């Protein structure tokens, strides 16, 4: 397991424990069990402790304490990022986040007077096996309110340069945003202040809204 992912992956074996009568295990079922286990065995707290330790080593200055969770039923693979202002500090974006795992990283502002503003893309599949890209973005301006924005599109969508358009969408948002597209779901939130926590959940439609 990479040093910046947390929690044991949720697999078919975990699904069988919760749904012993089910014989056809779908990605959506694995996603459901992953979301039910979003905080089990301290996986969420371990991700938070990791990024807080990164922040402590970094010191003062604008930064985003980023924690992202995979409840898609399959493995998500890092597929690129966009830095408008700043860069990740010390620990890279997680290369792979398996179902039921948290990934964590710290994004910090550049040395000059600017905030932290960036996006990251993870690639995976919807319940039907269609390739999809989850895009998560955040903005902590040097002056002004923080922003969070997310969207999901077809696989490799972000290999085309949409970044000026996305930057405008990001900066028009407040501190919470969600998207549903082609059976996929994502939600992002960011706190207030100059070094807030940023939380993103990548999932499938209907998984996180179950009672």
UniProtKB/TrEMBL annotation:
<dbReference type="InterPro" id="IPR049065">
    <property type="entry name" value="Nakanori"/>
</dbReference>
<dbReference type="Pfam" id="PF21230">
    <property type="entry name" value="Nakanori"/>
</dbReference>
<dbReference type="InterPro" id="IPR053085">
    <property type="entry name" value="Jasmonate-induced_protein"/>
</dbReference>
<protein>
    <submittedName>
        <fullName>23 kDa jasmonate-induced protein</fullName>
    </submittedName>
</protein>
């Amino acid at each position: 397991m990479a040093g910046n992912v947390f929690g044991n992956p949720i697999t078919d074996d975990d699904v069988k424990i919760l749904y012993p009568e089910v014989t056809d295990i779908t990605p959506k079922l694995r996603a459901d069990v992953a979301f039910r286990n979003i905080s089990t065995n301290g996986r969420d707290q371990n991700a938070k402790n990791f990024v807080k330790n990164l922040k402590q080593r970094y010191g003062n200055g604008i930064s985003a304490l980023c924690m992202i969770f995979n409840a898609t039923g399959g493995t998500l693979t890092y597929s690129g990022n966009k830095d408008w202002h700043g860069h990740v500090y010390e620990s890279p974006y997680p290369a792979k986040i398996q179902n039921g795992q948290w990934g964590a990283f710290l994004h910090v502002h550049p040395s000059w007077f600017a905030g932290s503003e960036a996006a990251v893309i993870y690639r995976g599949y919807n319940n039907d096996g269609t390739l999809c890209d989850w895009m998560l973005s955040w903005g902590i301006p040097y002056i002004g309110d923080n922003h969070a924005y997310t969207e999901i599109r077809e696989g490799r969508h972000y290999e085309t340069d949409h970044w000026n358009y996305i930057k405008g969408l990001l900066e028009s948002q407040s501190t919470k945003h969600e998207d549903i597209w082609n059976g996929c779901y994502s939600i992002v939130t960011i706190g207030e202040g100059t070094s807030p926590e940023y939380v993103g959940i990548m999932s499938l439609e209907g998984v996180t809204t179950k009672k």
